[in-house]
Amino acid sequence: MVGSNMLPHGALKGVKVLDLSRILAGPTCTQLLGDLGADVIKVENPKSGGDDTRQWGPPYVTDAHGNPTDLSAYFMCANRNKRSVAIDIATAEGQAQIRTLAAEADIVIENFKPGGLAKYDLDYNSLKGDLPSLVYCSISGYGQTGPNASKPGYDLMAQGYGGIMSVTGEPDGAPMKVGVGIADVMCGMYACIGILSALRHRDLTGEGQWVELALVDSQIAWLINEGVNYLTSGTLPERRGNGHPNIKPYGVYETSDGHVILAVGNDSQFERCAAFFGLADLSSDPLFATNPARLEHREALDEILIPAIKTKTTAEVIAGLEALKVPAGPVQTLGQVFASDQVAARDMRITMDSAAGPVDLIGNPLKFSRTPVTYRHAPPHCGQETAEILDGTPGFLDPENPQE
């Protein structure tokens, strides 16, 4: 609901995005730009049936007869607030159509292999002469330079090459990927930041530029503390399951009826936590009194703490520690997540009316006091707005969000 102090559109109203990307990293970026008010035209190849993820199901949205449509859940997760146009860029006609749309755009984003668009004269160097104010973003697996530039990039490959799998998983288990395509998603987030920074520069100077990033580079960037731990010490990090390399106790612990998360961030919290479990002497024991000591003696601490936690229910631990201002929480299923009052209060589950009927989607986490996120277009069928965009001559003009 738009309040009296809020504007009925996003902060990027009037910004036009030509989206030549597919799968997850680029679409994550452009969905976010669309949520913020930008008008996003998604270009899809009619010969292949559109974005690869349209076939990445089940589950699919079904039609009135129960038949699956091209709206897979995977596709819908990153493609709302876009209009789809079917264009074959391998043809001269398609290339001309892309150049016409690019001439109207503020932003072009693509995730072809390096050099993949140059043969169609649709790469940045081919467009920048006629479109000097264009912000052009390229996403690839390993980047436009370096010995691996020609290799294809997928989330799993990026997680493996970039090191995150080496620190994820149980200590005696195999290297483990994160449960969602986090390398793609985070690359899309970095791309959005880069695009908005370049757009700010363009608005100040009139000068566009090329924003270029790689799945592997962005994954390495968010190694964060583990990466710098290694660079500082030269010691390879260990897989610790749900444990933390720099904080103890911090992880998932078994209770009498399930599991609970403890995140004890400092010594005063540990003192209160130990007392709650009837282990008050631990906070004065030199082996456990400080966080560095607890890290050094983590196995000895677990031998004492784990049995004590198992004597209580998950609800007892959470209620008791929250009352003592010690961070503790549940491990929820997705069913519990999306049914929670917190999700409802934060509008993190939304419903949109698509061409195939109502669809439930995950909401945008950003909250603005003046320019709220808006949900204007449900994920489209492949080429759903082709005639409107190519034949109706309104260009990028969004009929549901007209630009004054």
CATH superfamily of the largest domain: Crotonobetainyl-coa:carnitine coa-transferase, domain 1
What is the CATH architecture term of the largest domain? 3-Layer(aba) Sandwich
- Taken from the alpha-carbon principal axes, the silhouette is elongated
The total number of structural domains is 2
Please give the share of residues in helix. Answer: 25-40%
Neighbour order of strands in the largest sheet: 5-2-1-6-7-8
Question: Could you give the order of the helices and strands?
Answer: EHEEEHEHEHEHHEHHEEHHHHEHHEEH
The portion of residues forming beta strands comes to 15-25%
Count of β-strands: 13
**Average pLDDT rating:** 94
Write the CATH fold name of the largest domain.
Answer: Rossmann fold
Major beta sheet summary: 6 strands, parallel
Counted by DSSP, the helix tally is 15
Helix-and-strand structural type: alpha/beta
What's the CATH class label of the largest domain?
Alpha Beta
Unreliable spans are none
Rg estimate, integer Å = 25 Å
Give the N-terminus to C-terminus distance in angstroms. Answer: 22 Å
